[in-house]
Design brief:
Blueprint lengths: L1 E5 L2 E5 L13 E4 L17 H6 L5 E5 L12 H20 L4 E6 L1 H12 L4 E7 L11 H7 L3 H8 L4 H10 L2 H11 L6 H14 L7 H13 L8 E3 L3 E3 L8 E6 L7 H5 L1 H4 L5 E6 L5 H4 L1 H17 L2
Parallel strand pairs: 3-4, 3-5, 5-6, 6-9, 9-10
Antiparallel strand pairs: 1-2, 2-4, 7-8
Helix pairs in contact: 5-9
Length: about 325
């Protein structure tokens, strides 16, 4: 259910599996700007949300909504110091907690890192999943395109980063595979569950909303082109410095070994970038999406992640 909303943004709360009083810190899941809130709760059998709820965790999640032309001037400062910080305050008030655990997926992991540097007193522990850290080491096709993009011309022309462009970029990473994907899938008989999972995954991959223009401009310039995040030189708003060495809470970093969207080497760097003494790295043998929806991930990876969060709460 929706716990809080402002503008296009909404904060969702999932009904806990155990209705009794929970002494574990609540968990806020932060998504990338290009993802819908349902992607980690895609289907019952491959729902990360459901897996974490089964560990007795109290789960909340961001929903950035669909930015319009009225939102093109919103900044990272507004998203982090307004949307995210108000959400954390709402969660602490709702659960009577003094801190919140934060899990960020992909670019959402970068938002989680930035938030944890600015508000370390509100963060219980930090989990990043398939999150780029050192963008100079991210040599995937999408990253290479982004590094060479004239982002000023793009945003000055369109206002927001168009969803058609974002979805097209995903498809163009491997156009032959994209064209043959559906015919190849139906070459042999499929049961209804596998068909449902296939189309749900396709909907996830190509249901990217536009990204607010000024946010996209700063993220591309600061992270992809100038690599300021890992250099501790990124700034939010009027001079708020993002220094990853301010992160001293327990840290779990999860990467997918076969990730073609976020280079594993870029993600590994985060363990050295933060100042936490309690930090772990899980390298899971899958791709970017497989780490979320593969049966193997839900059998081997997510129970382990849930246990880590529960033990650190």
């Amino acid at each position: 259910h929706k716990l809080h909303s402002e503008g296009k943004f909404a904060l969702f709360h999932y009904n806990p599996a155990d209705k009794r009083t929970n002494d574990k810190a609540p968990v806020l899941i932060i998504y990338a700007f290009i993802n819908r809130h349902y992607i980690l709760d895609l289907l019952p059998e491959v729902s990360i949300i459901r897996n974490l709820l089964a560990k007795g965790l109290d789960i909340f999640a961001t929903d950035w909504g669909t930015p319009s032309s009225y939102d093109q001037d919103l900044t990272l400062h507004h998203y982090i110091n307004n949307y995210l910080d108000k959400s954390v305050d709402k969660i602490m008030e709702h659960t009577n907690s003094d801190k919140v655990s934060i899990l960020g997926y992909c670019w959402g992991g970068d938002l989680a890192l930035i938030y944890a540097t600015l508000y370390p007193e509100k963060v219980k522990n930090l989990i990043t999943l398939a999150t780029p850290g050192d963008f100079s080491l991210d040599d995937g096709l999408l990253s290479l395109w982004t590094k060479r993009m004239n982002v000023d011309s793009l945003i000055d022309t369109f206002g927001n980063a168009p969803s058609m462009m974002l979805n097209g970029a995903f498809a163009l990473r491997s156009p032959i595979d994209y064209i043959h994907k559906i015919p190849h899938f139906f070459e042999k008989p499929r049961d209804i569950d596998s068909v449902a999972e296939f189309f749900a995954t396709e909907m996830w991959l190509y249901d990217s909303p536009p990204v607010a223009g000024e946010i996209y401009r700063q993220f591309v310039k600061d992270c992809y082109q100038d690599n300021l995040l890992v250099k501790n030189q990124m700034k939010i708003g009027k001079g708020q410095e993002v220094n990853l060495k301010r992160i001293k809470v327990p840290f779990l970093n999860i990467l997918a070994k076969k990730d073609d969207l976020v280079a594993p080497n870029s993600t590994r760097v985060l363990n050295d970038a933060v100042a936490s003494t309690d930090k772990s790295l899980i390298e899971f043998d899958s791709g970017h999406v497989g780490a979320c929806i593969s049966p193997k991930a839900h059998k081997e990876l997510w129970p382990k992640v849930g246990e880590w969060i529960a033990s650190h709460s």
